[in-house]
Structures are given as structure tokens and as C-alpha cells.
Amino acid sequence: MGKSLPPEDIEWWKQEYQATKGLLFGFYLEFIKALGLERPVYIGNAIGASLGLDMGLEYPDLFRAVIAHGCVIKGGKGRKWPVLSP
């Protein structure tokens, strides 16, 4: 990781890096689109697992399955997690 060249058109070192949910979602959505994947299986650990659960909730038809390991689930009593269709 970290072997790609930094962008030339912005002074990236002057900006605070924030790994927002929107930024991370965008990366994975574009990655899936660029590879032409149809309903891939997402596997994530720790923050990647939490991200996978969130993407599964927001894009239930995008993934065949989400496998989450070692994540923290926040939610109130009675929160229903959708089951992704096979």
C-alpha cells in the first residue's frame, strides 16, 4: 500500500485526510464497477467488516453476501439487519 503516485493537481499535504464513510463507499463502488463484478461477496475485518455491514444495509442488491469478522455493531434495541438474498 502507498506505492501510487500522489495527485499532481492538488496540494494534498495541506488537506486533512479523513476516511469518511462516503469516501470509502465510493472507493468500493467504483472498484466493483471498474472490474465489472456482479454481486460480489464482500469480506472484511475490523473497520472493513463494519464498512461491509453498512454497505450491505445501504446497497442490499449489490452484494451476494457480506462476511464481517471482528467488527463493532452499533444500534439500538430492536434494530433489524436485512438478510441479503442468495
Set out the fold topology.
Blueprint: H1 21-35, E1 41-45, H2 47-58, E2 65-69
List keywords for this structure.
globular; two-stranded parallel sheet; alpha+beta; 86 residues; 2 strands; disordered C terminus
Summarize the structure.
The chain has helices spanning 21-35, 47-58, and strands at 41-45, 65-69.
Describe the structure in your own words.
The chain is an alpha+beta fold and 86 residues long. It has a domain at 39-74. The chain contains two helices and two strands; from the N terminus they run H-E-H-E. Strand 1 (41-45), helix 2 (47-58) and strand 2 form a beta-alpha-beta unit.
**What is the strand arrangement across the widest sheet?**
1-2
Rg (C-alpha, Å): 15 Å
Largest sheet: 2 strands, parallel
Q: Strand fraction band?
A: 5-15%
Shape: globular
Number of strands: 2
- Count helical runs: 2
Q: Briefly note the structural class of the backbone.
A: alpha+beta
Oligomer: single chain
Q: What is the CA–CA distance across the termini?
A: 33 Å
Task: Give the H and E element order.
Answer: HEHE
Low-pLDDT runs of 5+ residues are 82-86
Helix percentage: 25-40%
Mean of residue pLDDT? 80
